[in-house]
Specification:
The protein has 15 helices and 22 strands. By secondary structure, the protein is an alpha/beta fold. The strands form 4 sheets. Strands 1, 2, 7, 8, 9, 10, 16 and 17 form an 8-stranded mixed beta sheet that branches. It has an 8-stranded mixed beta sheet with strand order 5-4-12-13-14-11-15-18, sandwiched between helices. Strands 20-19-21-22 form a 4-stranded mixed beta sheet, covered by helices on one side.
Amino acid sequence: MTSHVPVVVVGGGPVGLTTALELAHHGIASLVVEPRTAVDHSRPRAKTTSARSMELFRRTGAAAEIRARAAIPVAWSDEVRFCTTAGGHEITRLSGVLGLELIDSDLTAEAAQQVTQSAVEEALRAMLESRPLVSTRYGSRVIAVDITGDRPRMHIEDADGAVEVVEADYVIGADGSRSIVRANLGARYEGAAAGRPNVNITFRSAQLESLLPARPAIHHWVLNPEFPGVVGPLSLDGEWWAISTGTESIADDDEAAAIVRGLVGADIDVEVLATDPWQARMLLADSYGSGHVFLVGDSAHQNPPWGGHGYNTGVGDAVNLAWKLAAVLNGWAPRDLLDSYEAERRPIAQQTIDLAAGNMRALSHDLTTPALMAEGDAGAEARASAAVAIEDVKRAEFYSLGLVLGYSYGPDAPAQAPAPETYVPLAAPGNRLPHSRNTAGESLFDLLGPEFTVLGGDPDLWMRAAAARGLPLVHVDPVAEGFPPVAHDRVVLVRPDQHIAWIGDPSDDPDSAFDIALHGFTTSH
């Protein structure tokens, strides 16, 4: 027998889980198929959930769940430190990095969060357990995808080798770099591996904390020519991560411990938990899908992790695609709305790859010189010179709100900023709605409905027009709620993903605005 579900999500990493959660948020049932039964905490991978991702997670309640599971409180530190060794000379610090400083900010509804990918996955798994619309098959894998018929058919094999065929209206490939969905779609990565090889090391150490300055930092960038890399806390209980840059492989735990001690500059206790060799890739799929099959996250793009944009780009994919699929499946949007998914998201992935590639050109091994390690006046002068260089070359990596909050959809959307580190809130079609808070500290985004929201205008006019289409709409008057005007006396139509679909005058026809909004931003728009 062949069973049927509206959407099958192939892959249950953070992007696949986000996709299922988002679909449920809009009333659509889905099945998530993921080979891993449990989350692996020894390989934390992504460690920064951006302010934009946290804003999107806030809509479903996931932001609070993620913060509750984070081992490092958001207020603990918003600094990165550059040093000769983790326990050695400090060269400089950058403060207010990665959006961690945005607690209760007017710019955002949420600050970023330092949290491991594994903790995010567990938070999302827990959220899905309370969502009846989501079914999960952990321990199963999709072994074949047939997209030749009217509907995609997935052959799903469980841990015992039994195979079930599931038919879906849509299939979403969130199955990473070796995506079976991408292969069946006929899409291919464009790009190549980039930069030097690296090895991640996770470890426990009771002694490391005592060697660090009292003023905490989330990263310690080590500019030791013999042991270049980065060290940072995974928790406040003696769990740490390290990246040894330029290292191809590690033979055993003894070698891993020696590298950690080289990064720290002291013979500390080291219990190696895991090692993970990797090389950065700059890859972008030539197609994000069409018809009934789409790609999100690493199945669609891969970029170097420097700057913390990796999985966050996938979260943006998941939210963008899921609300559009839900609108089509719920019957209030045309099928060609789905054409705007690739048109909107692929350029953002390209921008992210370009920024990460620039960040990769200024890693620890590129900033090191033997003079930094010297004592006396010569060493002090070298470190003072390096501090100036670091402020210049590393700035875009740690200050990138122009990309994180300022990315914009559509060919007519104005450029947000002359540089990635500069974010200028601007109410314009395609842009994220500029955020604000009222005098009570409440977030404007909390007034937005789960689907479309109109800010300003005649509520009766807009609600009648929406009801005639069966389009879910919430009307909000921000000024009446104590918020500053969004676009002076104009009317703003906001999409489910908090991006502006349309701006017009109070006298404009709502149906024209809905027609524009329900086609998304494409190259022909």
